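Shipment paperwork, digital attachment
Item: protein structure file
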Amino acid sequence: MTAAAPQKSLILFDLDGVILDSRRNMEIAWASVRGELGVEVSFGAYFAEIGRPFPDIMARLGLAGAANAVERVFRRASSQSLHETPLFDGVASMLSTLAESGRRLGIVTSKDSARTELVLDRLAVTFAIVMTPRDGLRGKPAPDHLLFAMARCNVDPANAIFVGDMDSDAEAARRAHVDYAHVDWGYGARPADCRFAAASPDDLTSFLLS
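Attachment content:
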């Protein structure tokens, strides 16, 4: 951890790369996309864009015209192996400790609601807010979902923090004027201007309860 943070009443988490170690699940799903639809884009190219809304990823990969078909195949294949997709070690205990401290917890993810619920059902904590892609709100790196989550929880940005692992997470936090904590166990590099970073769930717990 690189700095101390003021206590926050609302802690918002990204899902993939922060709570769920989903890289292998995504790789399996993308293999199905390539096999069934003849898509030539590599998994590495897809993976470099994760954290954004799926349609935005497709546009950035030059697949906008096939976005609906790609998403249908990807979601189906991902759901089939999601039960085998592990949580990061120590994350479940971290979330329980934070909840027991009286902090409210929330999820802000680009993953669709059905698959998000399959993951959250495995956790023994209650989330005050779960934000998945929805009409009328722009996805990360836009700040819309973070702002909506804070408004629904009646919490000012000064009393909230967003925990993520990708550039799109950090940018969304900046644009929402909310503190950002980066997890080094995730999939993206730590932003150069990052003030708060955690090497492990225990490290993040200590930081958030300091």
